[in-house]
C-alpha cells in the first residue's frame, strides 16, 4: 500500500503528521491533485483549541485544511488529460446538487454539503487528494500558495456581489485579518473606495504593505460609509459598523463571533434604513477570485510571507506562533 503524509487533528491540542493510504481510483469526473500549499484558517485554530465550532464537533481524528492550492497529477477517464500539470485552487465544499438551495444556485446553504475539514469530513492538508474536476479551478500562472488564497478571498467576492458593490460605493472593512484584507481587494476590484479599520499593529502594517488605506477605529467618522464589511466578529466591530454606516447603507456580517458579540441594534438599523446581509461561505466565486488574485498578485505578499513545512505544523500550533502572522501558509 502506498502511504502519504497528512496533518491529522486527533483531539484538541493534538495535531499529528500521520501516515495515511494514498487515495486511489479517481472516478471518471475526478482529478488527483498534488497539494502544494494550504492556508491555515481561523476555523482550524478553533477546532485545535476547542474541538468544535457550534454544532460541528471533532469526535474522531480529522485531516485539517481547506484553503488549497496544488497541481493536477492525474485525471479520471472523462476529464481532459490536458489538465495534468495545471496549477489549481480547490473549492472545498461539494454540495449535493439536488436540494432546493443547490437548485437555486445557493449551494452554500446545502444541508448535505461535504465541506473539507468540517467534522466528520476530512480536509486536504495531505500530499494528494481526489477531487471532482468541476470543483477544481485552473489558477493559470498563479503559484499554488497564491491559488490557496482563492478560498478566503471567495468570502469577500461573495460579500461584494451580495451587496452589489459599485464604483460609487465608499466601503469600510472592519478587521484586517486575511479575510478582511482580501475582502478589501474584492471591493477594490469593483472600483469602490475602500478604507480598512484595524487596531492590531502587525495587521495594520500588513494592510499597508498591501497598499490599502488602513486607519484605526477611533479615526473613523460616523454616518460615512455606504457599505460596511464587518470581518472582525467582535462586539466593538459590530458597534463600529452601526455607527459609521451612512443612512440607507449596507452592513455585511462576515466575521463570525460569539452570540453576545454579534448583537444588532434594531432601532438604529431601522431609523437609518440600513440593510444587513448575513454572509455564510460563498457560491460561484472561484473563477472571479482567481482573476482578482492574478490582477493584484503584487499586493498579496503579506499573506504569503509566513510559510512553514507541513512537518513543522504541530509545533507551530502548540507555540501559538501563527498568531503573529496574518496568514500561515503550509507548504508541501
Ligand atoms: Zn477558512
Ligand atoms: Zn444541496
From TrEMBL:
Residues 27-139 form the Alcohol dehydrogenase-like N-terminal domain. Residues 178-293 form the Alcohol dehydrogenase-like C-terminal domain. It comes from the Bacteria. Keywords: Metal-binding, Oxidoreductase, Zinc. One of its GO terms (molecular function) is zinc ion binding. Pfam families: ADH_N, ADH_zinc_N. This is NAD(P)-dependent alcohol dehydrogenase. The lineage of its organism: Bacteria, Bacillati, Bacillota, Clostridia, Eubacteriales.
Amino acid at each position: 500500500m502506498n502511504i502519504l503524509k497528512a496533518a491529522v487533528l486527533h483531539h484538541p491540542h493534538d495535531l499529528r503528521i500521520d501516515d495515511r493510504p494514498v487515495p486511489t481510483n479517481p472516478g471518471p469526473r475526478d482529478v488527483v491533485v498534488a497539494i502544494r500549499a494550504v492556508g491555515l484558517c481561523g476555523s482550524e485554530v478553533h477546532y485545535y483549541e476547542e474541538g468544535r465550532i457550534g454544532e460541528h464537533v471533532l469526535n474522531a481524528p480529522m485531516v485539517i485544511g481547506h484553503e488549497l492550492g496544488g497541481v493536477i497529477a492525474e485525471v479520471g477517464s472523462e476529464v481532459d488529460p490536458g489538465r495534468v500539470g495545471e496549477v489549481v485552487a480547490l473549492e472545498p465544499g461539494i454540495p449535493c446538487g439536488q436540494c432546493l438551495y443547490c437548485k437555486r444556485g445557493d449551494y452554500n446553504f446545502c444541508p448535505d454539503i461535504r465541506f473539507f475539514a468540517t467534522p466528520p469530513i476530512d480536509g486536504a492538508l495531505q500530499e494528494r487528494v481526489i477531487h471532482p474536476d468541476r470543483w477544481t479551478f485552473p489558477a493559470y500562472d498563479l503559484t499554488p500558495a497564491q491559488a490557496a488564497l482563492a478560498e478566503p478571498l471567495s468570502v469577500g467576492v461573495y460579500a461584494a456581489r451580495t451587496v452589489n458593490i459599485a464604483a460609487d460605493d465608499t466601503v469600510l472593512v472592519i478587521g484586517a485579518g486575511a479575510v478582511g484584507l482580501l475582502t478589501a481587494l474584492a471591493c477594490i476590484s469593483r472600483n469602490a473606495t475602500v478604507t480598512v479599520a484595524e487596531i492590531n499593529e502587525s495587521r495594520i502594517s500588513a494592510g499597508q504593505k498591501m497598499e490599502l488605506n488602513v486607519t484605526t477605529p477611533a479615526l473613523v467618522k460616523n454616518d460615512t460609509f455606504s457599505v460596511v464589511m464587518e470581518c472582525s466578529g467582535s462586539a466593538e466591530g459590530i458597534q463600529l459598523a452601526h455607527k459609521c454606516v451612512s443612512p440607507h447603507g449596507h452592513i455585511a456580517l462576515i466575521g463570525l463571533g460569539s452570540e453576545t458579540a454579534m448583537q444588532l441594534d434594531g432601532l438604529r438599523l431601522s431609523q437609518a434604513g440600513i440593510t444587513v446581509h448575513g454572509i455564510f461561505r460563498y457560491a460561484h466565486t472561484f473563477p472571479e477570485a482567481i482573476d482578482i488574485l492574478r490582477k493584484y498578485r503584487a499586493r498579496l505578499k503579506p499573506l504569503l510571507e509566513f510559510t512553514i513545512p507541513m512537518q513543522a505544523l504541530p509545533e507551530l500550533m502548540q507555540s501559538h506562533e501563527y498568531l503573529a502572522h496574518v496568514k500561515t501558509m503550509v507548504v508541501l
